[in-house]
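WARN retry 2 of 3 for item q-0093 after timeout on previous attempt; input resubmitted unchanged.
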Amino acid sequence: MLRFTAIAVCALLFATVGSLRPVLTQPMVPTFAAYIYDTTGKQLGQALFLDVDNGVQVRVDVTGLPPGAHGMHIHEVGSCNPLRDTQGNATPFGAAGGHFDPQGTAHHLGPNGPGHAGDLPNLMADPAGHARTTFFVDRLSVRPGPTNIVGRAIVIHANEDNYTDTPPLGGSGPRIACGEIGPLRVSLVGMKTVTASDWAAAHKLALTNVASSTLALANASLQITAQRIVWNPKSPMMHLEGNVRIEDHGKLIIAGEIVDFNAKTGEYTVTQPATH
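OK item q-0093 returned
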């Protein structure tokens, strides 16, 4: 999980905006997320899915797991609800369906085998129950098409996966955690709302021909404009709302009505496109 600290909110915003120049001259990285919960509804962490050349980079960071190895897969349905049989017995996260298998192989052969595309590497939890990993998958995508995983689910199982069909599904056992894959979101807990007038009065930052309700900061070649910004001082994530525009050297890089933007890495998700 990204960690970024500054003395004050204004210093963080100004510093990170200034640091964006080399990032914004490169193609941006659309990012999707799954917020992972256990069977009691407690959030354990999240998985991020970054659109990269020829596949997806996956970053998983969760706590509260039993120590040891856990099977982990993309499942075909984007629902973490339980599934009940005719007798009323519930399977936790059963509504996520089976392993994502767009090629119709009907075999579970692991992340490097010719079986389910949704087979991922085992997730290793340390003695404290914390698991963090990053890996690349070339059989999946977050772009439209048959291998797109947006709108599906990621599931963590109780046991280690042996990447074979014996026992079924590699013996990974019950589903103990699940997250539905969708747009990256930003928690508003502990965040502050900032307007251009607040910044101009407190920090003497120049505004660039916009209404007083709009935040527009110019530093070197970069300008970020939005009617509302929600900001967590301990995170590089910016939640921007209202006629959002991010420009570099006068070139429009990102536009939308609602944008979640990582000011440290340049990763972003447009959760509501521009209306005009």
